[in-house]
Amino acid sequence: MTVTTAPVRRTWMVAYALAMIGVAAGWFGPIQILLPEQAARLAGEGGKESLLALVTAVGAAASLVANPLWGALSDRMRSRRPIFLIGTGLGVAGLLVLALADARGPMIAGWVLVQVGLNGPLAALAAMIGDRVPERQRGTVGALFGVAQIIGVVLGTALAVAAGQGAPGYLAVAVAVPALAAALLLISREPVRLPERDRIRWAVVLRPGGQFAWAWLIRFLLNLVNALVLVYLFYYLSDRVGVTGAATWVLVLTVVNVLFAGIAGFAGGVLSDRWERRKIFVGVAAVILAAGTALLALFPVVAVAIVASVLVGVGWGAYVAVDMAVITHVLPDAETRATMLGVANIAGTLPQLLAPVIAAPIVTRLGGYPVLYLVAAAIALLALACLPRLKALS
């Protein structure tokens, strides 16, 4: 791979984090509150889970295709900026469609457009780490990439609560996404890039012993744990825990989660750069995520849900602290960086497709929320079992 040596400035890091916060707010504000509320309003109490599963699954399927396509297109252009701008515009358009949606069809179409669009800036932001950030800073900047996503979750949720569910919430998120991206576009001066070659070394990437393949699998498993926690959190709190004002409690737990994830993520990124160690953070993350999801399964009360949110936040933060550093370290070469990061991002979007498919039958027929969250704990431990296969990583 081509090695970047010039350090990035703190102002660039801040602008980069703000842009990622905006993208994440556009994604997770709807997932946390707006889509569940809309599904309940359109399908009623008897059909809300099925409609939400359908909408999120179709959207995730679209995302699954869009992310590597955006990455491949980005690798063939002289700048990441057009991908960032076009994708952001499509994502905002999708949020506006959702704001006006009064039936299942427009709701699905709007969410598909959001998923397809926001994968554009996501692909561009991921590729910028390889383009601009030297190896010695990738733990810190990679942690910002992950922590910013977590902050975007709470921002999107807070906007949905503050502006109101339905159209006002979607409009607030639609304004926030481009507003937060503006700083990076204004200060970023990209080096001129030559279009990359068309051939990807798939034999290197996908062979059973390939480091990229194992890093991809670990990312997939831990993202699946996170997706299983989030997908029915609104319904878990209202139906299983029995709280009143489930939307407010989603916000409270999200704030708790984000606070501890942000602390763990940023501290972990800095420490991983200082210690030049990545694997230990992934292992700790998997164990803590398993503990947090097991608590949700076994003790459906508010106090325990708060403790579980702390654990899930710390675990997720420990993982995102090194996630991008791990992935960029095992990329096959620099010439297909955005394309391969798009493939890597499938490990983050595919769980959105699978989470409702896995969760819906468990919640409705196969044991309910206790079984759902125990399955999530088992998946976290499976990721831990895969970690020794990353032999080239410290």
Automatic annotation (TrEMBL):
Membrane-crossing residue ranges in chain numbering: 12-31, 51-70, 82-101, 107-129, 141-163, 169-187, 216-237, 249-268, 280-299, 305-326, 338-359, 371-390
Keywords: Membrane, Transmembrane, Transmembrane helix
Domain Major facilitator superfamily (MFS) profile: 10-394
Annotated SUPFAM superfamilies: MFS general substrate transporter
Presence of the UniProt keyword Membrane in the record: yes
InterPro entries linked: MFS (IPR011701), MFS_dom (IPR020846), MFS_trans_sf (IPR036259)
One Pfam family in the UniProt entry: MFS_1
PROSITE patterns: MFS (PS50850)
Keyword Transmembrane helix: yes
Cellular localization per UniProt: Cell membrane
Membrane topology according to the record: Multi-pass membrane protein
The protein, known as: MFS transporter
Organism: Actinoplanes oblitus
